Amino acid sequence: MLDDRYDLAFRLYPYARSPDQDAAAPVRHPVVVMGAGPIGIATALDLGLQGVPVVVLDDHEGVGQGSRAICFAKRTLEICARWGCGQEMLDKGVVWNLGKVFHADRKVFEFNLLPEAGHRYPAFINLQQPHFERFLVERVRRAQDVGAPIEIRGRNRVDAVAVADDHVTLDITTPDGPYRIAADWLIGCDGASSPLRRMMGLDFEGRVFQDNFLIADIRMEAEFPTERWFWFEPPFRDAGASCLLHRQPDGIWRVDFQIGWDIDRAAELREENIRARLDAMLGAGVGYEIVWSSIYTFQCRRMTRFRHGRVVFAGDAAHQVSPFGARGANSGIQDADNLGWKLGLVLQGRAPEALVDSYCTERRHAADENILNSTRATDFITPKSATSHLFRNAVLDLAAHHAFARPFVNSGRLSVPCAYDDTPLNGPDALPGSPARTRPGAPCPDAPLGAGFLLDRLGGRFVLLGIGTDAPGDIASGGVMAEALTVAAHDDPTGALAERYLGEARRGVYLVRPDQHVAARWDHVDTDAIRSALDRACGRG
Amino acid sequence: MADLVTTPNIADADAFYADLIALHDGLTEEESAALNARLILVLANHVGDAQVLRQALDAARAAGRRDG
Ligand SMILES: Cc1cc2nc3c(=O)[nH]c(=O)nc-3n(C[C@H](O)[C@H](O)[C@H](O)COP(=O)(O)OP(=O)(O)OC[C@H]3O[C@@H](n4cnc5c(N)ncnc54)[C@H](O)[C@@H]3O)c2cc1C
Q1: Do domains A8-93+123-203+301-369 and A429-537 have the same CATH topology?
Q2: DSSP element (H, E) containing A76
Q3: Distance A316 CA to ligand 1 centre (A)
Q4: Is B42 close to A408, i.e. CB distance below 8 A?
């Protein structure tokens, strides 16, 4: 029996019988991805674009209804741009920079994200998660049209796995009955309640927050500006402990009420009760239609290890955070970005399996950073003691009058990518005078380059970036090539590239990983040093 | 590196102490507690230095112990 656990927004991969179902023995695939949520599709896209054959299994036939995630960060858009689907997300999304913070019936202050100039993508867009996922699947379809070996199998539910040293066997249920396949590598992208984790008896430790959040996505023609409005202790009737109003595309608004732990779920979800809350908040006479509503609770937790032999976990299956800060899908996309090139090199025999362990080290560090940030935000929004509540309100009272108190106000520290400071893949940081933001391990910041942008030229392979000096030509080691890219002063029209990558230095050479993170940097070209940094970045260090 | 000043540093200690107490005149306990919290944040920001703040947190907590 294959039951739907949710309704579909877009039916994108209807069930079709696969020849594997008629094979005498389980057909073996290099990579199988379990789960076609945003992270599973992204992982498959990254691998498929490298020419690595990948099969994605999902027990549904498309994208679920209800836009859980709405805030997608610059780094996510940059990664999607590398995959070839950033622009359509930007075109559809709502760009916002202004936020207002309210406490009870007064405005405490407003902020502007003040995005730095000279980046192709804005700090954030708001976009319904179903659209985000649809754009990823559409990109997969275009890649398939030109031969990318990606297959998405809808209505394929994974029911059991047998994990061996060098492969995994999967039992799958379909509308035509069960069948079995094998995979050299299995990537678990099956979401926060990951059945795979359970099948393998793996832990998922962390903190449960005793609170319920009522979400309503409503369509209205109202004069609210494109801003993020957040209330602590909102003044409207039954609004709960906090409230968020945020705009999405197509005239849709996200309203999020924090309604406490002891609630009658079914009653709260009745339309008349949701409407009573919304009417009190929006004021009488504002017309709207409820597009989607849901009540959610959340946890902050992660697996101890993301890799278990030939099984690797990514996205919500590996780690879960509170929605404050929009770090769920955004961090999962970085998982896919991080894992893709490493697994690709390993499968092509150009890097040792140990490279995949660095995925676990790096992304676990990122998960800890995200959990720390989202836990702190949660504790500020929902103080856990009378004293904590006292200080929270003291901060809000002061913030209305003094700038110094505003950095304490925490309604979610919005997702920024993690710098992998302690990864074993990092090489030398040997460029005196250069900025910390571009140190080894950090994600490359964008900058105008010629008529385009720097990030358009990085990623997907190792790049040797020479700024103000000739890169020494392509350099190869152990079958991996770093491609030379030279930037002269006239390619840097605004000077932003020099400011972000050189600082006080006059020239520099950067080794940049396929996921656009810095591997090493120097003040001069030393071919041997570059070769050894390249080895190190491929897990041969 | 800066250190927390733990020797007398306020010229007229009696006057400041009187001001501090007077500040709470007419407030309920709850209002007083809120005022204290605001005052701590104002002073902490003025100090700024992370190490001094850490020492201040530790000094305040340690002086409350009665078991040593
Ligand atoms: C209210 C809310 C607001 C949020 N807001 C944001 C935000 O603004 N920004 C942000 O970045 N994140 C946000 N998130 C988090 C974001 O939605 C998740 O991080 C994201 O969906 C995780 O993607 P995933 O692919 O890892 O998992 P999922 O999206 O859960 O996908 C898992 C997939 O696996 C499939 N599956 C499960 N079991 C099986 C099986 N046995 N066999 C085959 N397939 C299976 C499921 O059908 C599903 O398609 C929010 C979350 C919530 C709840």
Answers
A1: no
A2: helix A74-83
A3: 6
A4: no
Is any atom of ligand 1 closer than 6 Å to the C-beta of A189? Answer: yes
* Ligand 1 contact via A38 beta carbon (within 6 Å): yes
Domain A8-93+123-203+301-369: CATH superfamily, name plus number: FAD/NAD(P)-binding domain (3.50.50.60)
Res. A479: pLDDT tops 80? yes
- Closest CA–CA distance from residue A380 to any residue of chain B (Å): 15
* A408 contact B CB<8A: yes
Q: Cβ of A492: how many Cβ atoms within 10 Å? A: 23
Q: Which residues contact A385 (CB under 8 A, 6 or more apart)?
A: none
Q: Give the CA angle between residues A205, A211, A214 to the nearest 5°.
A: 120
What's the confidence (pLDDT) of residue A329?
A: 96
- Residue A224: what pLDDT? 79
Q: Do B33 and A405 touch (CB under 8 A)?
A: no
**Domain residue limits, chain B:** 28-67
Higher model confidence: residue A297 or residue A353? A353
pLDDT recorded at residue A471: 75
State the average pLDDT for chain A: 95
Please give the distance, rounded to the nearest whole angstrom, from the Cα atom of residue A35 to the centre of ligand 1: 9
List CB contacts of B42: < 8 A, sequence separation 6 or more.
Answer: A398, A402, A404
Structural element, H or E, at residue A27: strand A27-34
- B27 touching A, CB under 8 A? no
pLDDT in tens, A87-139: 999 999 999 989 999 999 999 999 998 889 999 999 999 999 999 999 999 99
Q: Is the CB of A329 inside a 6 Å radius of any atom of ligand 1?
A: yes
Averaged pLDDT, B34-38: 98
Yes or no, beta carbons of A398 and B34 under 8 Å apart = no
A334-373 pLDDT, tens digit per residue, is: 999 999 999 999 999 999 999 999 999 999 999 999 999 9
- Kindly list the domain boundaries of chain A, sorted by start residue: 8-93+123-203+301-369, 379-408, 429-537
Contact state of B34 with A404 under an 8 Å Cβ cutoff: no
pTM: 0.95
pLDDT band per the 50, 70, 90 thresholds, residue A222: confident
- Among A341, A264, A262, A291, CA closest to A51: A341
Which of A103, A380, A397 to substitute to test the interface with B, most B CBs within 10 Å? A397
Stretch A399-427: mean pLDDT, rounded? Answer: 94
**CATH of A429-537 among 3.40.50.620, 3.40.50.1820, 3.40.30.120, 3.40.50.300:** 3.40.30.120
Q: The tokens 């708001």 sit on which residue?
A: A126
A320 Cβ inside 6 Å of ligand 1 = no
Give the DSSP per-residue string, A416-429: -PPP-TT-TT---E
Ligand 1 atom with the smallest distance to the CA of A213 is 1
Confidence band of A216 (pLDDT split at 50, 70, 90): very high
Tell me how far apart the alpha carbons of residues A444 and A518 are, in angstroms, rounded to a whole number: 6
Mutate to test the pocket of ligand 1, among A33, A79, A129, A170 (most ligand atoms within 8 A of CB): A129
Q: Give the CA distances from residue A215 to residues A277, A291, A520, in Å, rounded to whole numbers and listed in that order.
A: 11, 11, 44
A104 part of contact set with chain B, CB < 8 Å? no
pLDDT of residue A147: 97
B34–A contact, CB cutoff 8 A: yes
Residue A331 CA, ligand 1 centroid: distance in Å: 12
